[in-house]
Amino acid sequence: MSAHDELDPDAPEQMRVRREKRDRLLADGRQPYPVSVPRTHDLDEVRAKWGHLQTGEETQDVVGVAGRVVFIRNTGKLCFATLQQGLTQEHSGVRLQVMLSLAEVGEEALTSWKAEVDLGDFVFVEGRVIWSRRGELSVMASRWEMASKALRPMPTMHKELSPEMRVRQRYADLAVREAARDMVRTRAKITRSIRETLHRGGFVEIETPILQLIHGGATARPFNTHLNAFDTHMTLRIALELFLKRAAVGGVERVYEMGRIFRNEGIDSTHSAEFTMLEVYEAWGDQRSIAALIQQIIVDAADAVGSRQLDTPKGEVNLDGEWTWLSVYPGLSAELGEEVTPETSVETLRAVAARHQLQVDPGWDAQKLVVELFGELVEPQLIQPTFVCDYPPAAQPLARPHRSDPNLIEAWDLIIGGMERGTGFSELVDPVIQRERLVAQSLKAAAGDVEAMQLDEDFLAALEFGAPPMGGLGLGIDRLVMLLTGVGIRETILFPLLKPGG
To answer: Are both 399 and 456 inside the same structural domain?
Structure first.
């Protein structure tokens, strides 16, 4: 039995019967999949225009409607069906009853309906708009047509799909579960809100390459591929940063992109191998101005879909509250009850990790250990919006050195609900220091670090051309949707990457 047939153990037999009905339609000279049907109204339009009718009231207004059959009840001389409309910007799964009576459609059409229509089929019905005696707005059919014959049965409407089946067969999930359709619209509202916020701020949206010769802009393991036309190795992008900065060098001073990026790493309840990232760069800005921007983006998105008071697994979040700033070294020191500074030795930090039963890589230096310890011990406790700042330089090779402490960089991670939601920098635009950072990264890559960035000479040439001071941010769209809806990452991504064979 295939995974598809888990929806219904009788699916193979039902498919045989449905296939026979399809073949019978063709043999009778009728199309099971016509190019079009003469639809005149959406189901929601019928509800909006004739929803004022009283029980038992009939009109002479004739409409042509179509939809998926999600309920059917056939009796002797009167048949009932419920049609469901697909998702629109404003409506989700609007339903409307249609009625077929012997007196209105005739014996041949009624017999054909009973013999040929199954749950899941798309049908077209033309007829008068009435309000049934049982109090249901309906179309009393004068004729009907098959619009698309479904060969696979629908999931049982009253039986919940398993979480695994929801994501493996999202088409079935969308057809039967309103929450799935609502998530599609909610995510669309969030991305539209983000673009509207940035548009008001004068930012320009651009598109940058997904296939790249050199992977950079983040420390992450890339997906590798080969471009036959050039006979050259390429990667899928792991970040949007380096090409957006090239645009800023060229004079696109407020620039952003919202697009898919790809990291060949672990997949779990908060991580996906491909996900959607927003990156924004603002000339003449810095980490503080860009922090104000990400706060506005998130608050606006929350307003677009619901409330600024959010429930998370770690507790309630109030987006209207103070968005605090917390420096890495003081924050870690407070948690440990002992002072940790940029001068704290590797041995001391390894001992701290051992006391807290945290596994560490023997090759990690002191800066890496500080970042990992903070992430494990402090970050999960940061429930209200917090900009974790003043990182050691190794944490973000593309961030500017701190203006008052050379042992730190001007970078932050935004933590909400105990999880990182975004990151921001005062961007490094000094090409000399940037070359030093990227050379150090390339040496790590040569030594076997699969996450280290490569040396990108073209990007360095762009910086040498002259880049204005700028602030930049990255915001994970999937994690923002998770925050605003309270669901896991596989529910926020419409078609998530799944392990084969499930």
So the answer is: yes
Structure confidence by residue, pLDDT tens digits, 163-182 = 788 888 888 889 888 889 99
Determine the Cα–Cα distance for residues 207 and 189; give it in Å rounded to an integer.
21
What are the structure tokens assigned to 167, written together?
């994501």
Identify whether the C-beta of residue 325 lies closer than 8 Å to the C-beta of residue 387: yes
- The Cα angle at residue 260 between residues 364 and 491, in degrees rounded to 5: 90
Contact criterion met (CB below 8 Å) for 206 and 244: yes
Q: Is residue 144 part of a domain?
A: yes
Q: What is the mean pLDDT of the chain?
A: 92
Question: How far apart are alpha carbons 248 and 282 in whole angstroms?
Answer: 8
**Residue 413 assigned as binding residue:** yes
Q: Is residue 369 part of a domain?
A: no
For residue 54, the enclosing domain spans: 34-148
CB atoms within 10 A of CB 285: 24
8 Å CB contact between 98 and 83: yes
The reply to whether the predicted model has a pTM over 0.85 is yes
CATH number, position 59: 2.40.50.140
pLDDT of residue 76: 87
Give domain status of residue 353, yes or no: no
Give the per-residue pLDDT at 386: 98
Count how many domains the chain has.
2
> Is the residue at 23 inside a domain?
no
Nearest to 154 by CA among 117, 201, 125: 117
The 10 Å Cβ neighbour count of residue 414 is: 25
Question: Domain of 280: which CATH number?
Answer: 3.30.930.10
Contact in structure between 130 and 57 (CB atoms under 8 Å): yes
Would you state the pLDDT for residue 58? 93
Nearest to 240 by CA among 499, 476, 493: 476
Which residues are CB-contacts of 283 (< 8 A; sequence separation ≥ 6)?
Answer: 248, 253, 254, 468, 469, 470
Instruction: Report CA dihedral (101, 106, 109, 113) to the nearest 10 degrees.
Output: 20
What does the buried/exposed string (b/e) look like for 174-186 if buried means 16 or more CB atoms within 10 Å of the residue's CB?
Answer: bbbbeebbebebb
Do 136 and 71 share a domain, yes or no? Answer: yes
> What CA–CA distance (Å, rounded) separates 406 from 408?
5
CA 286 – CA 27 distance, rounded (Å): 71
- 3-state SS, residue 41: coil
DSSP codes of every residue in 165-218: HHHHTHHHHHHH-HHHHHHHHHHHHHHHHHHHHHHHTT-EE----SEESS--SS
Residue 226's DSSP bridge partners are 233
